[in-house]
Amino acid sequence: MTVHISAKKEDISNIVIMPGDPLRAKLIAEKYLDNYYLINQTRNMYGYTGFYKGKRITVMASGMGNASIGIYSYELFNDYDVDYIIRVGTCGAYTKTLNLFDLVLVEKSYSNSTYAKNMGFDFKCVESDEKINSIIEETIQKNGIKVVRGNIHCTDTFYNDGYEEYLSYGCLGVEMETFALFTNAKKLNKKASAILTVSDSLVTKEMISSDEREKNTLKMIELALDSIINL
Q: 9-228 domain in CATH 3.40.50.1580?
């Protein structure tokens, strides 16, 4: 038990699928897991442990932003002996080559957040784990799924102006959690990656509704779940 997670240590798997939305964590458990049970509801940040195709996993929400996922992923890695976290979330597209509902496998996360500095690092870019990404790539090829692999901009402010700098770093889009997650993994010698669904475009101004968001993230969730079978 930690300040933010009420679960017993033995109730959490060493593999965690981490959506931002607590209700998406609930949906994943109800739709995909066998013999699942609630392991955390402190602050309504729902977490569940169960079995997917015989593999014991935990699904737990992170909340929004680097600060929130920073707390939960740190405690999972440090206090619950979690080895792997795969974030499943949404992002906004920075390029016309990305369409609504496209999937992005994150290679690097760029940010001007102070999160890394406060954790003892001096960088504005942190990589996801290549082992997890390779397994996800194998699952992509096996299942014939279209996924774009590339960099992402991770911001601390949802409402902000200008993203040209991040285009020069090859960032395909923007979200708010990968930088802290990957930084924690680096600090604690753990492994983390992220699969994102494009929910809106800063170029075309298109966006999907909240109802569409719920239904059309299933492909991303299934890709993450099928990949963890081989972890």
A: yes
